[in-house]
Design brief:
Number of domains of chain A: 3
Low-confidence stretches of chain A: none
Strand content of chain A: 15-25%
Largest sheet of chain A: 5 strands, parallel
Oligomer: heterodimer
CATH class of the largest domain in chain B: Alpha Beta
Structural class of chain A: alpha/beta
Mean pLDDT of chain B: 96
Strand order of the largest sheet of chain A: 3-2-1-6-19
Largest sheet of chain B: 8 strands, parallel, barrel
Low-confidence stretches of chain B: none
Strand order of the largest sheet of chain B: 3-4-7-8-9-10-17-18
Mean pLDDT of chain A: 95
Helix content of chain A: 25-40%
Shape of chain B: globular
């Protein structure tokens, strides 16, 4: 085994065969029944609770926790899912430590918030594992809506529209629905096929048709969609990946972190998934952390995450940073890549340290690297889109774009903070606005 | 360290903590272990008359209610008196008393309401060397259906009669255990005194159904689909017990009647409260049934530390200490005015005080945009609800207003003089203040 860890290059099977399951098991094991009751009992049922305000989907958190505490977790799940149809995934991936749990009065008072995320998972799992879909469709309106992108924003919008009686077709470029939930999130956050289970469960509402392998520019045009449907919701995410701008970044072994994460998520046999011995991840967001941690879990000997600013400026939460550190990821800050060295394949990557104003200090750092993952941000792709604001689709109100009859939400739309939960909220709110427009 | 030695109706024990007559004191094995753990005394599980012993149900005997993390708050039981033969209990009592001469050993007794029955059993008990007897007039289930237990305790004349028989036929001190399942505890207490009781002990358990099985539609504990009321005890009943103890302690006719306090005693603090309200010692059951005999160590150290902090050197100095301050409502000072004050440094902004006051009380708490909660003195009647619902200890307090200042709620100047309802102008039967 030691040989496998030290073997240079990008190599599969660095760990013993039985080790992978444990490495990629649930980051937070689910609360059992008694743990949930004890955790629920800690909620003070605050008046006008700050946690609700902090939740992008405005879930009535004290109410659902009280429903758990009184032995009705399915009622709790309905409270959650009525606001956030992907409450199950959000319970797993939300940075709760920066949202609801950060504002929990017990966090403020004791540094120990009520375990809102884990309680939400307890409730939603309880309902969904029984296969119960608690929502039904309103009478058919005869209206049709196209949703482009089957990620959190698109599916949230589609579900709400279907519930309101509209017929929805959801298009996605990938072979499966789910978007980043399926392709872009670390495996240990959503193990055991939860993302697909959640999609399947969501679709039980009926009235939603998923068409994969189709995207704007790949068989679809906005004009054609507008002509065919009564409304269009764009939830196309950010398909492009930013370049490093460093010399030699085209060498073998330098790839996009999102592709690595997607490949890992779709892998049915992690022992066959190759990983470098010396892995360098460049970036400071959740994608960088997910890639770095998973590289380490796959058996990379050294994993270094390099970010151009200080830790306080990282998009990844302190919890995520600490998680990476606890898994053995080294975090280097205030360094920008200047050159990728190697003969065909990367052997080393060279950084220059920068000061707070991003000005080079002249001090250099060379890290051995046989694999480099770029995670320095994604960009909107596509032609013929509605007007942009900066590098995203400009929206006003509940996702209205510059084009009549076209709404947008999720990562591709302006505003918001590129979180799953924000995407769900935007999809839901756009659906309500579309419904209002279609039934006016 | 304070001296915890206790003497109750002439019965000495190394501390005032006795185990109440109940399942923990049903046999020699338990009682020896209890004494080894440090309990000062034991009231042996109630003895019945000679002959075939009673039988218990073979299903659940206990029901419960719980607080957070399944903390047991209240327990009820449908167990009867000892279901072991009288001679076995007597033999074991004698052996235990012989080996633990410094501990109090009391025999709880329940036999039919006939003079001959009591006359017959008392010499046998006396022969064990027991220090006293406790008459079980409290057990509210099972035995009451047979005319014993609380069926006796609910009829003051019977209490007086049986107590008198016992005083006639034994030299041992007689403690009368009272049921709370009555309207006014003073009637049975006074009856016990008239009968010559050396002391009363209270409370026995309260008629109760702890919960209902909502699948089978039957009360808990459920025996083959049916349930019956049981006797309720544990922390939940303490307030009821404290009040009954205090009523007897401050009633002129019974003020000199020693009281053994029972009902939800779980910690040293509970014990100290019973003592302050007039109990000469306390009896414990549910707490040991929940945590085992070892808790007496905390009770001993806690009471001792408390007494040291108050410069008390003997338990007697604590007994009845709070009795003079228990009064009737009509004696409360209506000129006393307080206002709630919220400590903003301690406040965690949960808003429970606001919800409680706004929805259910006097709309006397204001909430700002940034979740700062402040008291509106113009509306605050000092009801204390905000204090009670606040999850942070000492965050909200009731601050008395200085005499001479004006209460913004009533516009009246706070009067330094004491005045109660009996002299209040709104009282139709007020008498002029002297």
């Amino acid at each position: 085994m030691v040989d496998d860890v030290f073997t240079p290059g990008i190599k599969a099977g660095r760990l013993e065969e039985g080790a992978y399951a444990a490495q990629f098991s649930d980051l937070h094991p689910p609360l059992d029944h008694h743990e949930a009751l004890v955790a629920a009992d800690r909620c003070y049922f605050c008046h006008d609770a700050p946690c609700i305000t902090a939740c992008p989907t405005d879930i009535d958190i004290p109410l659902f926790i009280r429903q758990i505490a009184t032995g009705t977790p399915d009622a709790a799940a309905k409270t959650i899912l009525g606001q956030n149809i992907m409450g199950g995934m959000c319970a797993r991936v939300c940075p709760t430590e920066q949202l609801c749990e950060q504002s929990c009065v017990r966090e403020v008072a004791e540094g120990k918030p009520v375990l809102i995320g884990q309680l939400q998972r307890y409730a939603t799992d309880h309902l969904q594992q029984q296969g119960i879909h608690p929502f039904t469709r309103a009478d058919a309106t005869g209206k049709t809506v196209a949703v482009v992108g089957a990620g959190p924003a698109g599916l949230s919008c589609a579900h709400r529209l279907a519930m309101l009686g509209h017929d929805v077709v959801v298009y996605d470029a990938r072979p499966k629905a789910g978007g980043l939930n399926e392709f872009g999130i670390a495996a240990y956050k959503t193990p055991n096929g939860f993302a697909q289970d959640e999609v399947d469960w969501l679709l039980k509402i009926g009235g939603i048709c998923i068409e994969t392998g189709k995207a704007l520019g790949e068989g679809l045009t906005l004009d054609a969609l507008k002509a065919k449907f009564d409304a269009v919701f764009l939830a196309i995410g950010l398909g492009g990946v930013n370049a490093l701008g460093a010399q030699g970044e085209d060498k073998d072994g330098v790839t996009d972190a999102v592709d690595f994460i997607a490949e890992l998520r779709q892998s049915s046999d992690l022992t066959a998934l190759p990983i470098g011995r010396d892995v360098v991840v460049i970036g400071g967001g959740m994608t960088a952390i997910d890639a770095a941690v998973q590289a380490k879990l796959l058996g990379a000997l050294n994993v270094t995450l390099v970010y151009r600013r200080g830790r306080d400026r990282m998009n990844a939460s302190p919890f995520e940073q600490d998680l990476a550190a606890s898994k053995g990821v080294r975090i280097v800050t205030h360094a920008v890549p200047v050159a990728v060295h190697g003969n065909g394949a990367v052997r080393e990557i060279e950084f220059e340290y920068v000061d707070g104003a991003m000005k080079g200090t002249g001090e250099m750092l060379r890290l051995p690297a046989d694999q480099v993952f770029k995670a320095i941000g994604q960009t909107l792709q596509g032609d013929g889109l509605p007007d942009l604001e900066g590098r995203k689709i400009a929206v006003t109100g509940a996702g209205r774009t510059s084009v009549k009859g076209v709404w947008a939400g999720g990562d591709c739309a302006s505003g918001g903070d590129d979180l799953t939960v924000t995407a769900v909220a935007e999809g839901r709110d756009a659906a309500m606005d579309i419904h209002a427009a279609l039934t006016a | 360290m304070a001296d915890l030695t206790s003497e109750f109706v002439g019965i000495k024990s190394p501390n005032p903590f006795w185990l109440a007559s109940a399942p923990p004191t049903d046999k020699e094995y338990n009682v020896r272990r209890a004494f080894d753990a440090g309990w000062g005394g034991v009231v042996w599980k109630t003895l019945g008359m000679e002959g075939p012993p009673v039988v218990n149900v073979n299903g659940p005997r206990y029901g419960a209610i719980w607080g957070a993390d399944r903390r047991l708050l209240g327990l009820n039981n449908i167990e009867l008196i000892t279901d072991r033969p009288l001679e076995v209990n007597l033999r074991e009592m004698k052996a235990v008393k012989r080996d633990y001469p410094d501990r109090a050993l009391i025999a709880s007794i329940m036999v039919p309401c006939e003079e001959e029955a009591w006359k017959a059993i008392l010499p046998h008990v006396e022969e064990t060397g027991a220090d006293g007897i406790e008459l079980n007039f409290g057990c509210p289930h099972g035995m009451a259906e047979r005319g014993m237990g609380s069926a006796v305790g609910q009829v003051p004349e019977y209490i007086e009669m049986v107590t008198r028989w016992c005083k006639m036929y034994t030299r041992m001190p007689v403690i009368v255990k009272l049921t709370p399942n009555i309207t006014n505890v003073l009637y049975p207490a006074e009856a016990a005194k008239r009968g010559g009781a050396d002391a009363v002990s209270l409370i026995n358990t309260i008629n109760s159904i702890t919960s209902v099985d909502l699948d089978n539609f039957a009360p808990e504990p459920m025996i083959d689909g049916k349930g019956t009321h049981g006797g309720y005890c544990g922390p939940a009943v303490k307030p009821i017990a404290l009040n009954m103890v205090a009523e007897i302690a401050r009633n002129p006719a019974t003020a000199d009647l020693p009281i053994s306090g029972i009902g939800g005693v779980t910690t040293w603090r509970d014990a100290a409260e019973f003592l302050a309200l007039g109990a000469g010692n306390v009896q414990v059951c549910t707490a040991v049934m929940t945590y085992g005999f070892k808790i007496v160590q905390e009770m001993i150290s806690g009471l001792s530390e408390y007494m040291d902090s108050k410069d008390m050197t003997s338990v007697d100095q604590l007994v009845r200490k709070a009795v003079p301050n228990v009064t009737d409502w009509n004696q409360l000072n209506l000129n006393y005015v307080a206002k709630a004050r919220i400590d903003q440094d301690a406040c965690i902004s949960c808003g429970r005080c606001f919800a409680a006051c706004e929805d259910t009380s006097h709309q006397a708490i204001a909430m700002s945009e940034d979740r700062t909660f402040t008291v509106i003195d113009e509306e605050c009647v000092a009801c204390n609800l905000c204090v009670n619902v606040c999850p942070v200890e000492d965050c909200i307090s009731m601050v008395p207003m200085e005499a001479g200042t004006t209460d913004p709620r009533t516009g009246k100047v706070v009067d330094p003089a004491y005045a109660n309802w009996t002299t209040h102008p709104n009282n139709p039967s007020a008498t002029a203040a002297e």
